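seq as requested:
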Amino acid sequence: MTSTVDEGSVPRSSVPPRIPRPTPAPLAVSPRVEALRADPSTVDDFWAGVPATPLVEPGPDGDVLLTFLWRERRPTHAVLALVNKLTDRHDLAASSMARVPGTGVWHLTYRVRDDWLGSYQLAPDEGDTPADLRDLAARGIPDPRNPDRLPPARSVAAAPGADRPEWWRPRPGTPAGALDTVTVDDRRVWRYAPPGYDAAAGPYPLLVLLDGDVWGPALPVAPMLDNLIAAGLLPPLVALLPDSVDRPTRFTEYACQASTVEFLCRLPVLCGLNVTADPARTVVAGQSLGGLMAAFAGLLAPWRFGAVLAQSGAFWWPSTGEPERLTRSYAVVDRRDLRFHLEVGLDEWVNVGPNRRLRDILVEGGYPVTYAEFAGGHDRACWRERLPAALIGLYA
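struct tokens:
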């Protein structure tokens, strides 16, 4: 599938609506920071009591106080805490940390649900002259005091109640499947075969997971599948992960483009592995625009894809003209033989409503739907942790 998209062009309709956060993220005050403010001479004891950041403290009504911290290394004009979907890019000043006088401690506290999970960066302004906040926001780095990282360059914060099974971590002694790349229609495709794959023993259940350039090398899904198969939670299956190429190509091809569905339908036949043709044993999955495309593939090709997994699906699409077009399509077409898993973060203020409306239309149409809203945002950290449970449910 050769891309003909101009590298510099991104369709306006595929860019999310630029809607400011309807309510500010809930800021709070950290008791430990306030104690330091009252006695700055205890700064060494303060840092000794925070072996890793962010600082986690109990909040009111069962909530949690998450305090993002920066330890000043040199004269600093400002520090931004760029927390996924808690930071409003329309109001960066609200994400500016405050400095405890006489300590070099910069801080910003949010009140979050006990099960909140998200990724973030910190952006210190250590230049000779103060930087514009928008320029500073483009220079975010991982938190040096937090060992929990999300590749390529973000940190992960979690409230104590966050569900983190970490199936994605390689586990010693777990049999490993084979991951390689093939080329289909000039498109790179990562190809996962389960441990002990035997073509004669097939056909194998199939997972088509979009954004292969993420789930192949960046956030490898192969160890996750190895662990789930070894635990008996998934059947031995084949996964095909097509490359999204680049941002302009992705924003064009994943925007309900019929030619993309045609490519995905041909992909299993051309992959070189013995995979099922049974739609009931085939899952198409994606995140954001990939979730939109997964649901569109189910609409156009239910004979090939019998189960749709959409995490934070961009069901607002298109942002210009007639919004939520795919939802209206499902409302008027004859019912397909499809099952759905939909989920969305409660911090995704642009996305929650469209996901709820698609869920309602599907339920009214008689489709089997599992639906979840999680404490977090439009975030690979959330998708990576939640993908296993969604797969388990659809292959059960």
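The longest helix spans residues 380-395.
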